[in-house]
Amino acid sequence: MTISRLNPDGLHVTPGYHHVTVVESAGRTAYLAGQCPLGADGEVVAPGDVLGQVDQVVANTLRALAAVDATPDHVVRTVIYVTDDADKSLGDVWRRLLDSPLKAAFTTASTLVGVSGLGFPGQLVELDVTAALSDQPT
């Protein structure tokens, strides 16, 4: 499997992600459920702290990827949802993700969206991930 990422001429320069991600001969794809800032007990962590919640989302996403023998390098699409009106929070979330162990996932096709609400009370961030896997499970 080969994953290539590109930014076509004539499109704006991106802050780290690529406009297009192409997977050659991908036999298997993993679609992760939206990864939320929940601890193992099912409770929202870091109430009111969007960056603390990002850290939990990163940890949960890494765990979910590992369950299918994938790494952040296998990620081909991300959508980040942030419940905050302040533009600064969106940028802070993006920078925190780029500084995290999941950073390679955000060199691919990525979208960052401000939303009015998410599924759990107090939840400020959620991450939707698609990963291309090798043809055979290990």
Question: What key attributes describe this structure?
Answer:
single chain; 138 residues; alpha+beta; 60s Ribosomal Protein L30, Chain: A; four-stranded mixed sheet; two-stranded antiparallel sheet; 30% strand; globular; RutC-like_sf
Descriptive account of the structure:
- The protein is of the alpha+beta class and 138 residues long.
- It has a single domain (2-133), classed as 2-Layer Sandwich (60s Ribosomal Protein L30, Chain: A).
- 21% of the residues lie in helices and 30% in strands.
- It is built from 2 helices and 6 strands; from the N terminus they run E-E-E-H-E-H-E-E.
- It has a 4-stranded mixed β-sheet. The protein has a two-stranded antiparallel sheet with strand order 1-2.
- Strand 4 (75-82), helix 2 and strand 5 (109-114) form a beta-alpha-beta unit.
- The two termini are 15 Å apart.
- InterPro entries: RutC-like_sf, YjgF/YER057c/UK114.
- It holds the Pfam family Ribonuc_L-PSP.
- This is Enamine deaminase RidA (YjgF/YER057c/UK114 family).
Distance between the termini: 15 Å
CATH homologous superfamily caption: RutC-like
Structural class: alpha+beta
- What is the total tally of β strands? 6
Biggest beta sheet attributes: 4 strands, mixed
Rg over alpha carbons: 15 Å
* Overall 3D form: globular
Give the uncertain stretches in residue-range form.
none
Reading off the top of the CATH hierarchy, the class is best stated as: Alpha Beta
Strand order of the largest sheet: 3-6-4-5
Total number of domains: 1
* Helix count, DSSP H or I runs of 4 or more residues: 2
CATH topology term = 60s Ribosomal Protein L30, Chain: A
> Based on the structure given, which CATH architecture is correct?
2-Layer Sandwich
Instruction: Provide the residue-averaged pLDDT.
Output: 88
What percent of the residues sit in helical stretches (DSSP H or I)?
10-25%
Summarize the helix and strand pattern as letters: EEEHEHEE
Q: Which strand-content bin applies to the residues?
A: 25-35%
Organism: Asanoa siamensis
Protein name: Enamine deaminase RidA (YjgF/YER057c/UK114 family)
InterPro entries: RutC-like_sf, YjgF/YER057c/UK114
Pfam families: Ribonuc_L-PSP
